[in-house]
Structures are given as C-alpha cells and as structure tokens.
Backbone:
C-alpha cells in the first residue's frame, strides 16, 4: 500500500484499543473481532499470500478448469480433479504457514460438488450430494426447472436465520414501548436489508419464512403492550394495512 492516508488509517485502527462492557483496554496485537479493519487487512494480506500464489504457482499444474472464490478470509476452491483438490489442501496449508496463518480445520473440507455429484452420491448409497456453507448461504446441487441443466442452489443457513430472528425478537422486546409507527418503520427497514442480501435466485422460501416469522413476533410483542388479548389478528391485519411491510422479493438473479 503506497497511499500514506490508507496506512495512517490502518495504524489508527490498530492502536484504537478495545472497549468491552464500558471498559477500555489497549490492544497490542491483532484486530478486534468484527472490526471493520479486518476485511481490509485480510484482502491485502491474502492477495499476496494466497491469490497470486494460486494464480501463478498452483493453477498451472492443475488439470482442467480451476477457480478460487474468496471474500476477505473466507474462500472456496473449485477443481475438476479430486487429486488437485487434495494437493491444494496440503500445499495451501504449507503456503499459509509461511506467513503465520492457519486454517480452521472444522470449516475446511473436500467434497464432490457439481453436475456429477448427485449421481456419485446415489452410487455411494447417499440420498443427496454434500452441501457447503459460504457467506451466509448453504450451497447445494440442483437442476433447472426442466431438469436438464445443473444449477447451484442457495438458501439461507438455518442457524443464521434463527440467529437473525432472535436478534429481531430481542430488539422488539427492548423497544416495544416505542410508537407503533416507528416500530413498523424500523421493521420494514430490517426486512428490506434482509431481502437485499438474502434475496437471491432460489432462496424465495427462506426469505418468505423469515418475513412470516417476523410478523408472528410482531403480533406477539405488540399484543403484550396492552391488556391480554387486546390485539386480535383482525386488528393486527388492519395495522399491517396502515403500516405495510415490504413483501419478500428476489433482488438478485444469479442464474
């Protein structure tokens, strides 16, 4: 990085310290978990330690098409031959070790994925091909509507969906005394943000389920603001008409 302004900001982030439960402590190593500086440093570091190495050193020795898809410190490597995938696992760990980096064993595995994966799974006595999680989505093998072409299916990771619903429930419980208009407006913004990220091709069922669960939580906690049973479903329906929530909609076509 040659831009002195970027270097100055990086130094400031690394020296900023950490504040937990109102208590400040200095940081002399690493970056705070979840800090905005982490993705930037991951991109800078892994561009040289991984991306260029993969492109210039490892890829030329592979058979058929290969690809590395990386976002910050998460990445997926695709190979035509299983032997290349196994060799990548070994050499990649050695390469990262040269720079003091380690992989997370529990998040790293080799699996068959692609047009032939479903057939191989059946030959091995398994009902479905393996899936993998990446960037908030569970990726699975599927086909086009006519069944002729292979497609990569994506759906929201189930535990991620549950976690987001839990966060919304906690927010609503803590803010249920706010004016109804503000609660509905904020809920609408949260739904739009969810659709903007998770509204990709093939994920309509997951985002529809999220919207449905959000409405159930709204109905429950808004009903607790008055007397028991004061908010009937018919009254809640009228409330929804007055303060409409955005319907689940696919935002990005990946097919």
Residues:
């Amino acid at each position: 990085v040659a831009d002195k302004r970027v270097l100055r900001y990086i130094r400031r982030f690394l020296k900023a310290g950490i504040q937990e439960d109102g208590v400040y402590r200095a940081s002399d190593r690493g970056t705070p978990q979840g800090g905005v500086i982490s993705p930037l440093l991951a991109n800078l570091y892994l561009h040289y330690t991984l991306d260029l190495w993969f492109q210039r050193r490892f890829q030329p020795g592979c058979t058929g098409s290969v690809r590395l898809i990386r976002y910050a410190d998460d990445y997926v490597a695709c190979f035509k031959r299983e032997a290349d995938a196994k060799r990548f696992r070994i050499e990649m760990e050695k390469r990262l070790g040269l720079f003091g980096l380690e992989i997370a064993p529990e998040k790293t595995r080799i699996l068959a994925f692609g047009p032939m994966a479903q057939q191989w799974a059946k030959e091995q006595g398994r009902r479905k091909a393996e899936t993998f999680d990446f960037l908030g989505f569970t990726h699975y093998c599927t086909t086009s509507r006519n069944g002729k072409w292979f497609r990569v299916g994506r759906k929201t990771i189930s535990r991620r969906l549950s976690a987001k619903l839990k966060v919304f429930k906690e927010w609503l419980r803590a803010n249920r005394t706010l004016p109804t208009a503000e609660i509905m407006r904020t809920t609408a913004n949260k739904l739009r943000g969810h659709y903007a990220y998770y509204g990709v091709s093939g994920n309509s069922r997951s985002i529809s389920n999220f919207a449905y669960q959000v409405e159930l939580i709204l109905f429950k906690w808004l009903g607790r603001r008055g007397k028991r049973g004061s908010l009937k479903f018919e009254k809640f329906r009228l409330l929804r008409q007055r303060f409409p929530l955005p319907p689940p909609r696919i935002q990005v076509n990946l097919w």
